[in-house]
Design brief:
Blueprint: E1 2-7, E2 13-19, H1 21-24, H2 30-44, H3 103-119, E3 123-126, H4 136-146, E4 151-155, H5 160-167, E5 173-176, H6 182-187, E6 190-194, H7 195-205
Parallel strand pairs: 1-3, 3-6, 4-5, 4-6
Antiparallel strand pairs: 1-2
Helix pairs in contact: 2-3, 4-5
């Protein structure tokens, strides 16, 4: 098991913690992480785009001119795709882009993402993060002490002061252990976990 330093909010080491190899020491499976990211982006798509085909555009029921003898190319409708105001040939229609991954695949993808952060020395464990009131300056100071740039802060329990303090920091976010996903983990340079967040992650994924 990997031994990682536990820091306090001032960035000083206050202890050590052993991370479970079943979560933080697995084989990194890039294809599963890629699939998990694509799944999240696809599931977030509304799929509401819509354009009209030639059968749906108003007008164009009459043949614009006779078939032969005019010198023009033959035309059957002024709402054909080649006409201005005509229908779209392969018009996009509302559709569902979502797909599913197996539970074990999702779990392996998250463990791969956590392991990759540990391997890159971008995983930071903090004993706790607590504020008396929501204040962006307080969170900025903590992240500076931890040397965590563009960080995803994960806490074990809901903490509105932490969430609100992180809200206005560019490219940094805060979340709970039950909401972590591969897209957010890989989308931030640093991953900051509180001790109770580590314990809850190990309870769920070990």
């Amino acid at each position: 098991m990997a031994n990682v330093s536990v820091l306090n909010m001032e960035g000083k080491e206050v202890g050590k913690i052993e991370l479970n190899d079943a979560i933080f020491g697995v084989e990194v499976k890039n294809h599963l992480m890629h699939r998990a990211v694509v799944l999240q982006l696809a599931n977030n798509r509304q799929g509401t785009q819509n354009a009209k085909t030639r059968s749906e555009v108003r007008g164009g029921g009459r043949k614009p001119w006779r078939q032969k003898g005019t010198g023009h190319a033959r035309q059957g409708s002024i709402r054909a795709p080649q006409w201005t105001g005509g229908g779209v040939v392969f018009a996009p229609k509302p559709r569902d882009y979502s797909f599913k991954m197996n539970r074990k695949e999702r779990q392996a993808a998250i463990c791969s993402a956590l392991t990759s952060k540990l391997n890159e020395n971008k995983l930071i464990v903090v004993d706790e993060i607590k504020f008396d009131e929501p204040k962006t300056k307080s969170m900025v100071k903590v992240l500076e002490n931890l040397k965590a740039d563009k960080a995803l802060v994960v806490v074990g329990e809901k903490n509105d002061n932490v969430f609100l303090s992180t809200k206005n920091i560019a490219k940094s976010d805060a979340t709970m252990t039950n909401e972590i996903n591969v897209y957010d983990i890989l989308g931030h340079d640093s991953l900051v976990l509180t001790k109770d967040a580590v314990q809850k992650i190990e309870e769920v994924y070990a």
